Structures are given as C-alpha cells and as structure tokens.
C-alpha cells in the first residue's frame, strides 16, 4: 500500500488549482528579451489583447515589390506572447513578389485564399523546392530557410501564414544587403557583384554606404 503521506500529496496536487499563469499578455511598453516580452499586470489585461482585426484589410501593394505583408505578431497582437504562434496576411498584386527572406525563429505554413502563388524554399544543401499553389493549397517553409512567394496567374493573390512563434522575425535578403548602410565595397566583396550593380541596387532599395567606397577598400 502507498504511504498515507504520498496519497495526501497526490490528492492535493490533483485537487488544487494550478499555480501556472493562464497567459502572459505582452507589456509592449517594456523592451523584449530573448524569452519574449514581460507580462502585463493581470488587472490591465482586456479582451482586446486577445483579438486582432488587422488581417481583414487588403495590404498596400503600391511599392517596388508589388506586395504587402500584414503581420499579426506579438507586437501587434499582445495576447500571443508566450503561446508559440502568430499569423500574417500576404497580398500580392500583379507581378508581385516577396523576395528571398527568412523567419529566423519559426517555421511557416502558408494557405492560399485567392489567386495563384509560386512559392518555394532553398534547403541548407541548396536543393530548391517550389510549386504553384492555388486557392486552398498549403505549403510549409522550415524554420530559418530562405523562401519566396511570387504572384502567378491573371489576378492578384492573397494568402495567410501561420508561424510557430509569437515573434518569428522577418528578414528580406535584398533589403538587408542593399537597403542598409553596409558599405558598397563590402557588399561587392560578399556578393561578387560589381560596383555599378551594387550602386544601382542601393538606389532601388534606399541603402547608403557608397560614399565610403574608396576609404573602405583600403581596409579590405
């Protein structure tokens, strides 16, 4: 027979309410840390922390990429903090594209709801997997791998993505290279592009760093 003391402890653990918090709504007034945001005081939490209406509106595709990504990450949807999931809406106009990008902290599942999207990713062994998706199709993009979406067909496309992190991160490779202040000589060095190509792409994406060209070359 089990000792009486053990039975008492077992019953108390079953019958007592859990000491774990039900949720940890993000306190966006405080900085995030690797584990996420700090929790808001329970007395300040409202139902609006657990709902988000931003994915119902069409994103503005009037840009060079002819696409828009509307995130419902922890920063926009505080109730997601600590729950391990988030979402986003993707709008692709005609000839729209979301260039090669990564989500460092999450895998992604994409669901096409309108139009056609050519989507794919590149594995760490440089194998490419891509397919044209139609309404109702799903595709998964493993965490951290480069992937892309391109509008295909005769009409704009819409898709919804879910992620297994409240803050998956979002880094577009071309923006990081050509929309930043990384000096042109360094960009040329790491991409094998010539100076004219780098300067052109920096103008397109709004990057800086050309003025450091000659001085930086002395350091390479």
Automatic annotation (TrEMBL):
What is the predominant subcellular site recorded for this chain?
secreted
Q: Which GO terms describe its molecular function?
A: manganese ion binding
**Binding residues for oxalate, per the UniProt record?**
103, 108
Where does the Cupin type-1 domain lie?
A: 53-199
The protein's location, in the record's own words, is: Secreted, Extracellular space, Apoplast
The disulfide bonds in this chain are 24-39
**Protein name per its UniProtKB record:** Germin-like protein
Species per Swiss-Prot/TrEMBL record: Dendrobium thyrsiflorum
